[in-house]
Amino acid sequence: MTRTDRTDITPRGGAAPSRRALLGWGGAGLALGAVAAGGAVAAATGGRNEVSPEAGAVEFHGAHQAGIATPVQDRLHFAAFDVTTDDRDAFVQLLKDWTAAARRMTAGRAVGDGAWGGPAEAPPDDTGEALGLPPSRLTLTIGFGPSLFDRFGLRDRRPAALVDLPQFPGDDLDPSRSGGDLCIQACADDPQVAVHAVRNLARIGFGKVAVRWSQLGFGKTSSTTPDSQTPRNLFGFKDGTDNIAGDETDRLNQHVWVAAGDGSAKDAWMAGGSYLVARRIRMHIEIWDRTSLQEQEDVFGRDKKEGAPVGKAKEHDKPFLPAMKPTAHVRLAHPDSNGGITILRRG
Fold first, then answer.
1. Closest CA to 309 of 333, 341, 284
2. Which of 9-18, 73-82, 162-171 is least confident?
3. The pLDDT of residue 164 is above 50
4. What is the mean pLDDT of the chain?
5. pLDDT by residue (tens digit) across 6-26?
6. Which of 129, 140, 158, 280 is the most exposed place for a label (fewest CB within 10 A)?
7. Residue 220: alpha-carbon gap to chain centroid
8. With contact defined as beta carbons under 8 Å apart, do 211 and 80 qualify?
9. 157-160: long-range contacts at Cβ-Cβ below 8 A with a sequence spacing of 24 or more?
10. Alpha-carbon distance 209 to 94, whole Å?
11. Residue 177, SS3 per DSSP
12. Tens of pLDDT along 231-257?
């Protein structure tokens, strides 16, 4: 399960296991500038053997990239890429080709001329495993890693905030499964639709980019829709109670979207975009399953049934942080404990 929660919980003076001990930090952070999806694109062409667009298609273009504040889907395929070409024009064309293909796939259409009906002497434009499947709310979010700005004369365009993460306590980072010049986050309600999308973008990028690492994910461990039930994580606790909702425009503008006036003039291209940290976390459920209910609730700072904070009755009651153990997740992750900082998390 892939999550972006970096909260550190260390037990003090008690027998309760730390959440950090239960969450082994494998993989690595990938800090990315995910810009709005309204840039230059290649013209779309009519394709053969398309799936007719159906309800459930998420518009690819817009003021912000889909897949950030979009309602969370059931499945994920996240892939990081190394750029293998030194040809700037070829790289620019790749981004245009990715845009055209992503626009078609998110609409439930095949890539290019499709999986059949084209020249018999050439490979098909689409691998075909999503033929007949609906769009399944597919979103494709594309981001640029810090290392990309060391290429193609882009060093002066790297935003000041786009820096590599430090190593956090408990991290066990594998360099081969960390970092990357580019990333693609494919989310959908059908795993085959998500995998098909990344597979085809990787195929289009052959000779220009190579997959560095990837991660499949399932389940909803956070919610971006205020009317939906808060999902539960693999520890059985509601997760994402205070997550920013997709319709909270003011909070999204304050905490998620980059404003035109943020940073220096060189960062202006990031306006409307956001920053992403991708974290792979190992959950030691065999230890957790032998932990008493009271200790489990002490670790989270919430009761397991309702998700209510310590001393409260309902999940969304305002937590009283001093009533919790100093190491409780809710207390350590709360904006009041972090100078007001809030993140939008998609587990």
1. 333
2. 9-18
3. yes
4. 84
5. 222 222 233 344 443 444 433
6. 129
7. 12
8. yes
9. 157/266, 157/269, 159/33, 159/258, 159/263, 159/266, 159/267, 159/270, 160/263, 160/264, 160/267
10. 9
11. helix
12. 899 999 999 898 998 889 999 999 999
Three-state DSSP state, 56: coil
Classify the phi-psi angles of 289: left when phi > 0, otherwise alpha if psi is within -120 to 50, otherwise beta.
Answer: alpha
**Contacts of 95 by beta carbon, 8 Å cutoff, 6+ apart:** 39, 142
Token pair recorded at residue 323:
């009533």
198, 76 in Cβ contact below 8 A? no
Tokens of 148: 């990309």
Burial status of residue 152 (CB atoms within 10 A of its CB: 0-12, 13-18, 19 or more)? middle
In angstroms, rounded to a whole number, what is the distance separating the alpha carbons of residues 157 and 178?
Answer: 23
The span from the CA of 147 to the CA of 293, in Å, is: 45
CA-to-CA separations, 280 to 74, 217, 226, 347, in angstroms, rounded: 17, 10, 26, 10
Query: Longest Cα pair distance anywhere in the chain, in angstroms?
Result: 71
Residues in contact with 108: Cβ distance below 8 Å, sequence separation at least 6, in sequence order: 50, 51, 52, 53, 54, 56, 57, 133, 134, 135, 138
Look-up of token digits 């920053």: 275
Long-range Cβ contact pairs of 63-66 (< 8 A, separation 24 or more): 63/36, 63/38, 63/272, 64/36, 64/37, 64/257, 64/272, 64/273, 64/274, 65/34, 65/35, 65/36, 65/37, 65/141, 65/142, 65/273, 65/274, 66/37, 66/106, 66/139, 66/140, 66/141
Percentage of residues in the chain having pLDDT higher than 90: 63
User: Is pLDDT of 215 > 80?
Assistant: yes
SS3 334: coil
* Residue 278 · residue 5 · CB < 8 Å: no
How much of the chain, in percent, has pLDDT values that exceed 70?
Answer: 83
Instruction: Say what the pTM is.
Output: 0.83
Res 128: pLDDT? 95
pLDDT of residue 149 exceeding 70: yes
The pair of three-digit structure tokens given for residue 190, joined into one six-digit string? 């059908």
| Rounded to 5°, angle at Cα 191 from 278 and 95 | 60
Q: What is the 3-state secondary structure (H, E, C) of 190-243?
A: CHHHHHHHHHHHHHHCCCCEEEEEEEEEECCCCCCCCCCCCCECCCCCECCCCC
